[in-house]
## 1
Amino acid sequence: MKWVMLIVLLWSPALQAETLVATRLIRATEVIGSGDVMLHEAHVPGAATRAEQVVGLEARVAIYPGRPVRLSDLGPAAVVERNETVRMVYRQGTLTILSEGRALERAGLGDSLNVMNLASRQTVQGIVNSTGLVEVFGSSDPFGRGQ
């Protein structure tokens, strides 16, 4: 009788986990859509279990068809591309400085990235904000002038 209970518990639908798998090759930097994933009956640690967790995110690595979609392989979609000209802003108190720079890497909202100031050719670090500006931080001379 104990064996029957154990078998029933093991086959219970509530105990069987589902994992999202890719339905097609998802290349790195592609944004995942709802048709790109489907549920598969298996438990894979670190893999997504609901489409809402991954739709709209960007693949950081190639994900092959039938493979689990791991949350660690995804990130926010990039809004700044490498070598793209971006507007930088530095704020300290009431002082605001705007300048143009060239992004040295791809970045999504809230991501940190290095930007080369086009006027001074100095590299500064900043964070992409919701308006697409790169907020420069952490320097008494934020745009590398006077060096």
## 2
Amino acid sequence: MLRILRHALRKHVRVQLMEQEEVVRLFFPIHKWEGLQELHKKTRHLPQSHLFQLNMPDNVSEYFGAHVAAYFHFYNAFTRWLVIPAVFSAAFPFVRPHIPTHEAHRLDSCFGGFLCIWTTVFLARMKHTMNEKLLRWGMGESVQNVTPVRKNFKDELRGSCSENLRNLLHWTLVILFLSETVFFSRFIANWRGELFENPDGMTFGMQNTDAAKYFKYLVTANIKVVDAV
């Protein structure tokens, strides 16, 4: 309604110029009391019990619009998704004192890898659900900006053997590149461990303790090469 009103006003007056000339002081929507009361009933206990209410952003969108509701949707989804790493991180202080140091380092590495996967999945899922919400809330222009249809997209190929083969190749490449990164990093970590166990030795004309420091850059180089490929 506000967008339609602004569009109609622009045909006859310029609100921004009127504000500059102080013909009007402010231009803003006033609250609709009945709608505000209805929203208050739906989200009365928002900070406590409604953190996990799935339809809460939809209720906000009905009154405040899609832009405000998008923030609540992100906040709502992020809070729910944080429960998983929060449970694991809460258990760490109780586990670490009872395991050896090297096992604690491995546990930290595993948790770091888990967070990388968790972040990737969350961002992908968040983008998908946000586009779905924008479509539901009628933000057509915003959806077209963030989800353009590719020129080579063909709807009739959905579920076909060609699409299945493309998906199989895609995930094969994903697993291949991820496996290469894991195995290469593991190889460098083991090699550096051997160098630290023999600090007086020489590798590539350098003392093992110095060579072990430079070997860390091989991990970065591998990331750059894999990214370019």
## 3
Amino acid sequence: MDPNGPALKPPPGVVPKLDNPPNRNDIAIGVITACASVATGCYWGALYAEIGLIYTPGYFVHQWDVRLKDMIAVQYYVFLFGVFYSVVLPLLKVTILLEWCRMFAPRGHRSEGYFWWGCAAVIFVQVTSGIGIVVSLNLQCIPHSAIWDITIQATSKCFDLYKLQVASASIQLISDVAILLLPQQVIWSLKMSWRKRAGVSVIFGLGLLACISAAVRLQTTVVHGKAKDAVWTLPPLAFWALAEMTCGFFIVSLPCIPKILKETGAGSKIKRALGFSSAGDTSKRQWESDGTGPRSNHSRLAGSTVSNTYYRLDPLKSSESTEYLRKGSQDVGITRTTKISVMHEGNADDRYIYP
């Protein structure tokens, strides 16, 4: 074999362009930059491998336009990306599920529902499969350098990675679907208005993006594994695997989104933009700001007493009760206690009980 010749025999009538093969590196740079901006610094190992493929051999380059000796670098970058992907993604999903167990399965009640057991099962699968896949990737050839060095592959022992790649993609897709569905029953059983439950459900339902990425990644894995022109079919597989990891980082941050929207005021702006604000909300805000609502009274409570703040709530001045049956008694002691509760539906900060 001529090391300076094409890595694959071109189709009839096609002349290899080995020195400057046509490519679509502009697409690769755009996708990699967009994903890196979402979760920069978290998976630079995988990004390093994908960036390396820009220079050797380039994205969407036919294999017959690549020198055979350049396939060493290509296979090395593919090997690196596979290892980093198989480490980063399981760790992301374990992080997601542990956080959700802390939120939705408090201690002492974790074994009462399917949610905690479902999370535990997915965590077990992710940890065991992640370790197994990483070990298999590193033992696919003996000696180890034969994984990417094509000059010694003829004398080495290697096994086909196709089944392992399909199994990995299938495990990740099933896990993504499980992570999408697991919190939904818990969310819809929360004691809050249906609008709030729907909002929380939609936020956690954004894991659908990860399911889409995993599904397409599985499809591209099958296509890539069966293709003769593997260099040409590699970019879609790399892009969707990168998108799947990016979605994982996004899902990790989901619990922080409602707090960010509330503190920045973006949530109210989004509601008004979508037309969700109503006259009732406006009147409620006016009621709380004009000095008559519980929020207003609560804010004034530090500088006043309960009696002068809630002077209207004095049942002893407006009616007689059984306590006056003993009005003339000379007994010493507590003859009556009165407990007045003032509540309105809302947050825990808006509930006051005055004895």
